[in-house]
Specification:
300 residues, alpha+beta, 38% helix, 5 helices, 15 strands, single chain
Amino acid sequence: MKKAQVTMFIILGIVLITIVVGSFFLKDTVSKSLNEAKIAKSVALQEQSKEIGNLVENCLNSITEDAILEIMAQGGYYEIEEPISYEFYSIPLYYNQAEEKVPSLNDVEDAIASYISNSIRICADNFDSLQFTAIPAQEMNLDVDISKEVLIGLEWKITIGDEDKAIVSEFSAIIEKDLKTIYDKSIELYEKQKKEQLISLVDLATLAMSKDYTLDFDFIDNTILYILTFEDVKINQEPITYSFAIKLKETESLTYDGEDFSEFFILADNISDSQYGDSSDNYDIPEEEEYQEEVDDFEF
């Protein structure tokens, strides 16, 4: 009897030990499975975050390039008050008699930021093609810095995932184009044009070549339009242009020795005697040396 009881206790002990050891193994297996599942979800979220980051930044880069081409072509403005339509350009009037409206470099940065802000949600249209949920916030913050390159910083919260979620919120783009130099050269031309009373159309091309841009201009309703094309600075094979306009007084007749020179000069309030040449074919301008001989002693 005692021997049978001892055997039973031994069997019960073995069963208990088996249960305890088995429970430890089971717990460890379950724990490992849960950890592996968490790691897998974490890795998946990281991959999804990376995919969102690449998608938004590629889109941001493309939109920024479009913004630069349009804003610079419009003289630094996103929206122009009473633009002058010329061919496919919308040109801002920088000077109209005593009224001057010239954007600062900060204004140009704000204009590019406005363009991007109003276009960036197009990027969210691409979220429909993703294999996971991505929900963008309504609010965003955008910073644009123009120097030797254009730096874009975008804060835009995008929630990804279903049960487990992650938030991606910081994006950036760098456009390696020196817009500051383009802006400075364009404003330099404008400032020289408003200093004095006389614009010479003969020497416009000389200055343009010395400043690494092509200068085109035309007259519409007593307004001279300037379009600077920087052939060496291109985005997607398209050169960056910069335009502005100056309102002039009525053209006055200038004569010397009975010959009318008014087609070579324009009188206007605060418009300077430019050192630049006409790159258009709209004017039959004589050779510089021949012309200079005729007007050296001419008094206005």
